[in-house]
Amino acid sequence: MSNNLRERLACAKETLLLVSGLVADAEETKGLLPAEAVSQFKNLGNCWTGVKHWNQLLDAREMQRSVLTDLERRTDQDDWVEYLGAKVPFTIVRLLAVQAYLAVHWSLADGMAAMVADVLSVENKLKDPKRKPNLHAMIDGDQAANAIAHVAYNTIRLMYGKEIALSYALRNYFLHEGPSEEFFEDRSSRSRFEISPNGWKLLAERPGKNLIKNAETRRADWSPGPGSDLREIFDTCQEGMDNALGILVGTACQVGIVHLLFVLGKEHEIPLALTPLT
Protein backbone atom coordinates (compact mmCIF):
# COMPACT_ATOMS: atom_id res chain seq x y z
CA MET A 1 0.00 0.00 0.00
CA SER A 2 1.22 3.52 -0.77
CA ASN A 3 0.14 4.91 2.61
CA ASN A 4 1.08 3.34 5.92
CA LEU A 5 -1.28 3.38 8.87
CA ARG A 6 0.23 6.47 10.50
CA GLU A 7 -0.18 8.44 7.27
CA ARG A 8 -3.78 7.35 6.95
CA LEU A 9 -4.46 8.30 10.56
CA ALA A 10 -3.05 11.77 9.89
CA CYS A 11 -5.44 12.13 6.95
CA ALA A 12 -8.30 10.84 9.08
CA LYS A 13 -7.58 13.44 11.75
CA GLU A 14 -7.78 16.26 9.19
CA THR A 15 -11.09 14.95 7.88
CA LEU A 16 -12.57 14.57 11.37
CA LEU A 17 -11.54 18.12 12.26
CA LEU A 18 -13.46 19.27 9.19
CA VAL A 19 -16.49 17.34 10.45
CA SER A 20 -16.21 19.10 13.82
CA GLY A 21 -16.06 22.48 12.12
CA LEU A 22 -19.08 21.78 9.93
CA VAL A 23 -21.11 20.63 12.93
CA ALA A 24 -20.16 23.73 14.88
CA ASP A 25 -21.30 25.92 11.97
CA ALA A 26 -24.55 23.95 11.68
CA GLU A 27 -25.28 24.44 15.38
CA GLU A 28 -25.20 28.18 14.88
CA THR A 29 -28.07 27.80 12.41
CA LYS A 30 -30.80 26.58 14.74
CA GLY A 31 -33.05 23.91 13.32
CA LEU A 32 -30.74 23.00 10.44
CA LEU A 33 -30.01 19.61 11.98
CA PRO A 34 -32.06 17.64 14.52
CA ALA A 35 -30.42 17.57 17.94
CA GLU A 36 -29.80 13.81 17.76
CA ALA A 37 -28.09 14.18 14.39
CA VAL A 38 -25.92 16.98 15.77
CA SER A 39 -24.88 14.71 18.62
CA GLN A 40 -24.11 11.88 16.20
CA PHE A 41 -21.88 14.02 14.00
CA LYS A 42 -20.24 15.59 17.05
CA ASN A 43 -19.26 12.15 18.26
CA LEU A 44 -17.77 11.36 14.88
CA GLY A 45 -15.85 14.61 14.72
CA ASN A 46 -14.51 14.13 18.23
CA CYS A 47 -12.87 10.88 17.13
CA TRP A 48 -9.94 13.00 15.96
CA THR A 49 -8.75 12.98 19.57
CA GLY A 50 -8.39 9.20 19.35
CA VAL A 51 -5.72 9.50 16.66
CA LYS A 52 -3.12 10.50 19.26
CA HIS A 53 -4.04 7.47 21.37
CA TRP A 54 -3.82 5.15 18.37
CA ASN A 55 -0.38 6.50 17.50
CA GLN A 56 0.72 5.84 21.08
CA LEU A 57 -0.51 2.26 20.72
CA LEU A 58 1.46 1.96 17.49
CA ASP A 59 4.56 3.06 19.42
CA ALA A 60 3.82 0.53 22.17
CA ARG A 61 3.28 -2.25 19.64
CA GLU A 62 6.56 -1.41 17.92
CA MET A 63 8.36 -1.58 21.26
CA GLN A 64 6.77 -4.91 22.14
CA ARG A 65 7.65 -6.35 18.75
CA SER A 66 11.29 -5.33 19.27
CA VAL A 67 11.38 -7.42 22.45
CA LEU A 68 10.69 -10.51 20.33
CA THR A 69 13.51 -9.79 17.88
CA ASP A 70 16.53 -12.04 18.48
CA LEU A 71 15.24 -12.95 21.93
CA GLU A 72 16.84 -16.39 21.65
CA ARG A 73 20.25 -14.75 21.19
CA ARG A 74 20.02 -12.88 24.47
CA THR A 75 20.03 -15.96 26.69
CA ASP A 76 22.80 -16.93 29.07
CA GLN A 77 24.32 -20.39 29.46
CA ASP A 78 21.35 -21.48 31.57
CA ASP A 79 18.85 -20.26 28.95
CA TRP A 80 17.72 -17.34 31.06
CA VAL A 81 17.08 -13.81 29.78
CA GLU A 82 17.37 -10.37 31.34
CA TYR A 83 13.78 -9.12 31.44
CA LEU A 84 12.47 -6.09 33.33
CA GLY A 85 15.54 -6.02 35.54
CA ALA A 86 15.43 -9.70 36.49
CA LYS A 87 16.76 -12.99 35.17
CA VAL A 88 13.87 -15.06 33.81
CA PRO A 89 13.78 -18.41 31.93
CA PHE A 90 13.57 -17.98 28.18
CA THR A 91 10.30 -19.90 27.88
CA ILE A 92 8.58 -17.52 30.32
CA VAL A 93 9.92 -14.37 28.67
CA ARG A 94 8.83 -15.71 25.29
CA LEU A 95 5.29 -16.23 26.59
CA LEU A 96 5.06 -12.83 28.32
CA ALA A 97 6.44 -10.98 25.29
CA VAL A 98 4.03 -12.72 22.90
CA GLN A 99 1.07 -11.95 25.15
CA ALA A 100 2.08 -8.30 25.50
CA TYR A 101 2.43 -7.87 21.76
CA LEU A 102 -0.95 -9.43 21.01
CA ALA A 103 -2.68 -7.39 23.73
CA VAL A 104 -1.44 -4.08 22.32
CA HIS A 105 -2.01 -5.13 18.71
CA TRP A 106 -5.65 -6.07 19.27
CA SER A 107 -6.35 -3.13 21.57
CA LEU A 108 -5.39 -0.92 18.63
CA ALA A 109 -7.36 -2.95 16.10
CA ASP A 110 -10.59 -3.10 18.08
CA GLY A 111 -10.39 0.53 19.16
CA MET A 112 -10.17 1.64 15.55
CA ALA A 113 -12.86 -0.83 14.49
CA ALA A 114 -15.25 0.65 17.03
CA MET A 115 -14.79 4.08 15.46
CA VAL A 116 -15.38 2.63 11.99
CA ALA A 117 -18.56 0.95 13.21
CA ASP A 118 -20.03 4.30 14.25
CA VAL A 119 -20.27 5.13 10.54
CA LEU A 120 -20.46 1.82 8.69
CA SER A 121 -22.44 -0.39 11.10
CA VAL A 122 -26.15 -0.92 11.09
CA GLU A 123 -28.10 0.50 14.01
CA ASN A 124 -28.86 -2.69 15.92
CA LYS A 125 -25.17 -3.57 16.11
CA LEU A 126 -24.34 -0.26 17.76
CA LYS A 127 -27.15 -0.53 20.29
CA ASP A 128 -26.17 -3.98 21.53
CA PRO A 129 -23.56 -3.41 24.26
CA LYS A 130 -22.86 -7.14 24.54
CA ARG A 131 -21.73 -7.33 20.95
CA LYS A 132 -19.34 -4.44 20.52
CA PRO A 133 -17.94 -4.09 17.00
CA ASN A 134 -14.49 -5.58 16.49
CA LEU A 135 -12.26 -6.17 13.52
CA HIS A 136 -12.74 -9.94 13.46
CA ALA A 137 -16.54 -9.59 13.31
CA MET A 138 -16.04 -7.59 10.13
CA ILE A 139 -14.80 -10.68 8.27
CA ASP A 140 -17.00 -13.28 9.99
CA GLY A 141 -19.78 -14.18 7.60
CA ASP A 142 -22.28 -14.81 10.39
CA GLN A 143 -21.63 -11.49 12.09
CA ALA A 144 -20.39 -9.25 9.31
CA ALA A 145 -23.83 -8.54 7.86
CA ASN A 146 -24.57 -6.77 11.11
CA ALA A 147 -21.11 -5.24 11.44
CA ILE A 148 -20.29 -3.05 8.44
CA ALA A 149 -21.63 -2.22 5.00
CA HIS A 150 -21.33 -5.19 2.65
CA VAL A 151 -19.02 -3.50 0.15
CA ALA A 152 -16.49 -2.80 2.92
CA TYR A 153 -16.92 -6.22 4.51
CA ASN A 154 -16.45 -8.07 1.25
CA THR A 155 -13.34 -6.15 0.20
CA ILE A 156 -11.59 -6.49 3.55
CA ARG A 157 -12.53 -10.17 3.83
CA LEU A 158 -11.18 -10.99 0.37
CA MET A 159 -7.95 -9.03 0.78
CA TYR A 160 -7.00 -9.51 4.43
CA GLY A 161 -9.29 -12.17 5.85
CA LYS A 162 -6.57 -14.73 6.54
CA GLU A 163 -4.30 -12.27 8.34
CA ILE A 164 -7.16 -11.11 10.57
CA ALA A 165 -8.46 -14.61 11.25
CA LEU A 166 -5.05 -16.04 12.14
CA SER A 167 -4.10 -13.12 14.37
CA TYR A 168 -7.48 -13.34 16.10
CA ALA A 169 -6.99 -17.06 16.74
CA LEU A 170 -3.55 -16.36 18.21
CA ARG A 171 -4.99 -13.63 20.41
CA ASN A 172 -7.67 -15.90 21.81
CA TYR A 173 -5.25 -18.76 22.31
CA PHE A 174 -2.53 -16.80 24.10
CA LEU A 175 -4.68 -14.30 26.00
CA HIS A 176 -7.84 -16.24 26.84
CA GLU A 177 -7.11 -19.96 26.84
CA GLY A 178 -3.65 -20.26 28.35
CA PRO A 179 -1.11 -21.59 25.87
CA SER A 180 0.13 -25.15 26.09
CA GLU A 181 3.83 -25.97 26.41
CA GLU A 182 3.35 -27.94 23.20
CA PHE A 183 2.73 -24.83 21.09
CA PHE A 184 6.41 -24.25 20.33
CA GLU A 185 8.89 -26.91 19.24
CA ASP A 186 10.33 -27.01 22.76
CA ARG A 187 10.86 -24.88 25.85
CA SER A 188 14.45 -23.88 25.12
CA SER A 189 15.79 -20.99 23.07
CA ARG A 190 16.96 -23.52 20.46
CA SER A 191 13.40 -23.66 19.18
CA ARG A 192 13.29 -19.89 18.87
CA PHE A 193 9.62 -19.17 18.03
CA GLU A 194 8.99 -22.16 15.76
CA ILE A 195 5.45 -23.54 15.99
CA SER A 196 5.20 -27.29 16.56
CA PRO A 197 2.80 -29.55 14.63
CA ASN A 198 0.68 -29.85 17.78
CA GLY A 199 0.81 -26.10 18.25
CA TRP A 200 -0.47 -25.44 14.76
CA LYS A 201 -3.18 -28.03 15.26
CA LEU A 202 -4.36 -26.09 18.30
CA LEU A 203 -4.93 -23.09 16.01
CA ALA A 204 -6.11 -24.73 12.79
CA GLU A 205 -8.48 -27.18 14.45
CA ARG A 206 -9.91 -25.01 17.18
CA PRO A 207 -13.35 -26.02 18.48
CA GLY A 208 -16.28 -24.17 17.01
CA LYS A 209 -16.23 -21.84 14.04
CA ASN A 210 -12.79 -21.29 12.55
CA LEU A 211 -12.02 -18.95 9.67
CA ILE A 212 -8.35 -19.72 9.18
CA LYS A 213 -8.66 -22.61 6.73
CA ASN A 214 -10.91 -20.90 4.21
CA ALA A 215 -9.90 -17.28 4.78
CA GLU A 216 -8.86 -15.18 1.80
CA THR A 217 -5.65 -13.21 1.36
CA ARG A 218 -3.88 -11.32 -1.39
CA ARG A 219 -0.71 -13.25 -0.52
CA ALA A 220 -1.06 -16.29 -2.76
CA ASP A 221 2.33 -17.67 -1.65
CA TRP A 222 1.72 -17.29 2.09
CA SER A 223 1.17 -20.65 3.75
CA PRO A 224 2.01 -20.54 7.47
CA GLY A 225 1.99 -23.85 9.33
CA PRO A 226 4.09 -26.15 11.51
CA GLY A 227 7.67 -24.95 11.64
CA SER A 228 6.73 -21.33 10.94
CA ASP A 229 8.35 -18.66 13.10
CA LEU A 230 5.59 -16.97 15.09
CA ARG A 231 7.30 -13.60 14.71
CA GLU A 232 7.10 -13.81 10.93
CA ILE A 233 3.41 -14.62 11.21
CA PHE A 234 2.97 -11.59 13.47
CA ASP A 235 4.68 -9.36 10.91
CA THR A 236 2.58 -10.62 8.00
CA CYS A 237 -0.66 -10.36 9.96
CA GLN A 238 0.26 -6.91 11.23
CA GLU A 239 0.93 -5.59 7.73
CA GLY A 240 -2.37 -6.92 6.43
CA MET A 241 -4.36 -5.72 9.41
CA ASP A 242 -2.78 -2.26 9.30
CA ASN A 243 -3.78 -1.99 5.66
CA ALA A 244 -7.31 -3.14 6.49
CA LEU A 245 -7.63 -0.68 9.37
CA GLY A 246 -6.26 2.19 7.31
CA ILE A 247 -8.76 1.47 4.55
CA LEU A 248 -11.68 1.16 6.97
CA VAL A 249 -10.85 4.30 8.95
CA GLY A 250 -10.28 6.29 5.77
CA THR A 251 -13.55 5.02 4.30
CA ALA A 252 -15.50 5.80 7.46
CA CYS A 253 -14.13 9.34 7.68
CA GLN A 254 -14.85 10.10 4.04
CA VAL A 255 -18.33 8.57 4.16
CA GLY A 256 -19.05 10.59 7.29
CA ILE A 257 -18.03 13.96 5.89
CA VAL A 258 -19.63 13.40 2.48
CA HIS A 259 -22.89 12.39 4.15
CA LEU A 260 -22.77 15.47 6.38
CA LEU A 261 -22.14 17.76 3.43
CA PHE A 262 -25.13 16.34 1.57
CA VAL A 263 -27.29 16.72 4.69
CA LEU A 264 -26.22 20.35 4.97
CA GLY A 265 -26.82 20.97 1.27
CA LYS A 266 -23.13 21.69 0.75
CA GLU A 267 -22.28 18.85 -1.60
CA HIS A 268 -20.48 21.36 -3.84
CA GLU A 269 -17.78 21.43 -1.13
CA ILE A 270 -17.08 17.68 -1.36
CA PRO A 271 -13.96 18.04 -3.58
CA LEU A 272 -12.50 20.48 -1.04
CA ALA A 273 -13.30 18.17 1.85
CA LEU A 274 -11.47 15.30 0.19
CA THR A 275 -8.19 17.22 -0.23
CA PRO A 276 -6.63 15.78 2.99
CA LEU A 277 -6.23 12.49 1.10
CA THR A 278 -4.02 14.00 -1.61
Uncertain runs with pLDDT below 50, 5 residues or more?
Answer: none
Average residue-wise pLDDT? 83
User: Number of helical segments?
Assistant: 10
Number of distinct beta strands: 2
Q: How large is the radius of gyration?
A: 21 Å
Describe this structure in words.
The protein has 278 residues and is mostly helical. The protein has one domain (5-277). Helix content is 61%, strand content 3%. It is built from ten helices and two strands; from the N terminus they run H-H-H-E-E-H-H-H-H-H-H-H. A two-stranded antiparallel ribbon has the order 1-2. A hairpin with a 2-residue loop joins strand 1 (80-83) and strand 2. Helix 1 (5-28) packs antiparallel against helix 2 (35-45), helix 3 packs antiparallel against helix 4 (90-120) and helix 4 packs parallel to helix 9 (230-263). The chain is elongated. The chain starts with a helix and ends in a 5-residue tail after the last helix. The mean pLDDT is 83.
